[in-house]
Amino acid sequence: MSANGTPMLELEGINTYYGQIHILQDENIVVNEGELVCLLGGNASGKSTTLKTILGLVRPRTGTVRLAGEDVTQLPTAHRIKRGLAIVPENRRLFGPMTVLENLEMGAYLRPKADLKAEFERVYELFPLLYERRTQLAGTMSGGEQQMVAMGRALMSQPKMLLMDEPSMGLAPILVEKSFEIIKHVNESGVGMLVVEQNANVSLSIADRGYVLSTGRVVLEGKAADLLQNEELRKAYLGR
To answer: By CB distance 3.0 to 4.6 Å, which of 1, 30, 126, 199 could disulfide with 34?
Structure first.
């Protein structure tokens, strides 16, 4: 979905430290309403710290985090979730001994039970398989199916901004493309998304814009189509 230019998520001048180690250095990232933005980088580039900073698990020493225009830099994670933030974590992190239905319910734990009918309908419309498998234990599903459950669980909270942490990790190559088709489909339903990935080729192919992190700094940013053609990026991340 093309963005309307209204910022939903903003990181401005973020400097994050672990002890004396300067991890994120003057990081600036914007995701507009309805936009799909990917954050690329290798290991130890600062991608995970960026997500933790957005979620409030790590507080920056300087800089500002805004969600829907509100300064949430010093506010707890629960407040950010209530304001419309959700995450599909790395390796999906489902409750394996619980059913698909129970996992989806966990995604809406901050919301009154009476309000969930529309969310279930929306998730089942996006992922018909989840309705068919709603009584199946999540831990017995394939990687691709678990990805659907994880995304459905996040959508149950009615997010305005969905963070995705390495959605291709642990998936067979044939499932990676399918997973990103689902991500694009969810984005087209109106949810703004920040997709954190090492797989530059696939993520840029569905994104509106992208940022590239290297040792805690944004070293490249621009429209996804332009980044795909960037010679520096192609050599570093696309292997050609």
So the answer is: 1
Q: Are 139 and 102 in contact (CB under 8 A)?
A: no
Q: Residue 103 corresponds to which tokens in the numbers above?
A: 């996992």
Give the model confidence (pLDDT) of 26-52 as tens digits. Answer: 999 999 999 999 999 888 889 999 999
How many CA atoms are closer than 13 Å to the CA of 63, on its beta-carbon side? 23
Q: What distance in Å separates the CA atoms of residue 188 and residue 9, rounded to the nearest whole number? A: 18
CATH 3.40.50.300 positions along the chain are 1-84+161-172+192-240
Give the amino acid at 203: S
Considering only CA atoms, which of 210, 211, 162 is closest in space to residue 186? 162
Q: What is the CATH number of domain 1-84+161-172+192-240?
A: 3.40.50.300
pLDDT digits (tens, 9 = 90+) for 160-192: 899 999 888 777 777 788 788 888 888 988 889
Q: Which is it for strands 21-32 and 7-18: parallel, antiparallel or unpaired? A: antiparallel
